[in-house]
Design goal:
2 copies of one chain form a homodimer. The first copy, chain A, has about 300 residues and is an alpha/beta fold. Chain A is about 40% helix and about 20% strand. A 5-stranded mixed β-sheet of chain A has the order 3-2-1-4-7. A 5-stranded mixed β-sheet of chain A has the order 10-9-8-11-12, sandwiched between helices. In chain A, strands 5-6 form a two-stranded antiparallel ribbon.
């Protein structure tokens, strides 16, 4: 039997739906990106429809949240509640008569980096997705661990702020994009001097992490401190992951790695103060190679791996 | 070739050295327990010597700390610095001409519970050792994950107290036996009323977790609050482990589980507030069956598994 040449990968994150046609080398042949906020199931169907052919081996879907793999549904998604309960795999399988697999989006991204990205050279690594929220995925002995890996939802401040997940003091509430913009706005509103007051035509609620980063590069103290504070917390999270998984590498992906030289460099310093040096000394902390594509490529990888045709 | 009937397991923890002769059913046939604080290598040799015969397949050693398995040494042991750098496997192998394996003590305990204890019925569980320090071990898909699993050395208070490991705010500093006695003494010294003032003939520095537990049962508020505070922190640690590993069970071992109805029950309540309910709802939290023997039995299991003779 001839190997089918492609798999379709989908990545449903906090704000975007990405769907791509991926070949057996882990390369994206064609892609589409749209919003995940409205009718995500219908958008997914029409995107898959675009790439569907008899040369497609299967479909993999990565979704933010806690996945019930057997039932093919999202049990819980604090950052994307609209997907909770949707029967993704059954629904898609019925329409396209192809094998369909579902995985947590950060787990899919870890699989993508392992297959075709920064994780190729490692047998074990922990991946953090750093965006609106924070997710995690763990590769062990060359394979994805089938665990929740909700690394953003670990308390790093026992009595810290309430997280949409119900916990208090989650890493995500201190080191994510949402945490950064929230902190910047809070500081500006409390009267701290900053060039960012003029940002977004004075509507500080529209400040993005990209804005914070560009003001930081211009030397704005509030912007720098916001990035560094989030970076220190990220370092606490990475140190914890190293003390638990003792991985060969930690791979960072998501929009926030654009601020690497301030945010991530601060995190790396914090890791060196906190993790067991016998472990962190041999752990490389690296940026993703696939960046925003890690999730769709990993989801496609899942379809290739599992279908074997 | 006839299967050799026994393996020798050793468990070198914070204060005790336990060595046992274990059969292929995971039962202890003979045992010795001594202190781990003086000349631990020599004590280990003389204990093994007692059980050594040509019916022994191999020797497994569990030691508190970060293990370098290939070299057979303990790279780091914050609670037992005297073992750092000792070439356990080479040294023991030379003397007894048997295969020798080394593992972190909590990892060994997880293996023991999986083989012959509370973990028999689970394909995946996280084990916490709750004693002077706090350790962890993770069973995944029926097998021990070869990771550091230093679950006691994860920051749960970002700017918390300094831990001997170098980190700040480690779970171990808030939920271990050492944390409990430290907190009780601190409260007594600050003038808080308590029956425990009379404990240990007034020498409060000698208060043990067992003392705290018996005073708590007598209704002493300070003793109860000390156990509950430690329990709440333990709950934060367990919730984190559930959000990361989504295990079928969490198994608790070590001296502190004697205070189950206050310390662990408080932890379980905290878990229900903090972990993703979709995960914690299906996670059982159970006491160890092998108790203090989990480590030696797991270490012996390692020797049976790896030698295959």
């Amino acid at each position: 039997m001839r190997h089918k040449r492609y798999a379709i990968g989908a990545d449903i994150g906090g704000t975007n739906l990405r769907v791509a046609l991926v070949n057996r080398e882990g390369e994206i042949v064609e892609r589409v990106k749209t919003s995940s906020t409205n009718n995500v199931f219908d958008s997914l169907v029409s995107a898959i429809d675009r790439f569907y052919s008899d040369d497609v081996a299967g479909i993999g879907i990565g979704v933010a949240g806690v996945i019930e793999r057997k039932k093919g549904i999202v049990k819980r998604s604090p950052n994307l509640p609209s997907v909770e309960g949707i029967g993704f795999t059954d629904g898609i399988r019925q329409r396209f008569s192809l094998p369909v697999y579902i995985e947590n989006d950060a787990n899919a991204a870890a699989l993508g980096e392992r297959w075709a990205g920064a994780g190729r050279e490692f047998k074990s690594f922990v991946l953090f997705t750093l965006g609106t929220g924070i997710g995690g995925g763990v590769i062990y002995d060359g394979h994805l661990l089938d665990i929740a890996a909700e690394l953003g939802h670990i308390s790093i401040e026992a009595a810290g702020v309430r997280c949409p997940c119900g916990n208090n003091g989650c890493l995500e509430s201190y080191a994510s994009a949402r945490a950064m913009t929230g902190r910047a706005v809070e500081l500006i509103e409390s009267g701290t001097e900053s060039l960012m007051k003029a940002c977004c035509e004075g509507n500080v609620y529209k400040i993005s992490p990209e804005d914070i980063y560009s003001y930081a590069l211009e030397g704005d103290n509030l912007a720098r401190e916001t990035l560094k504070t989030a970076g220190r917390y990220l370092g606490i999270g990475i140190a914890g992951a190293i003390n638990i998984f003792s991985p060969e590498a930690v791979i960072l992906t998501g929009g926030l790695i654009g601020a690497w030289n301030i945010y991530v460099e601060t995190a790396i310093k914090e890791v060196s103060k906190r993790a067991f040096p016998e472990l962190s000394g041999s752990t490389k902390i690296l940026p993703s190679i696939l960046k925003g594509d890690a999730g769709v490529i990993g989801a496609a990888c899942l379809a290739f791996d599992k279908t074997r045709n």
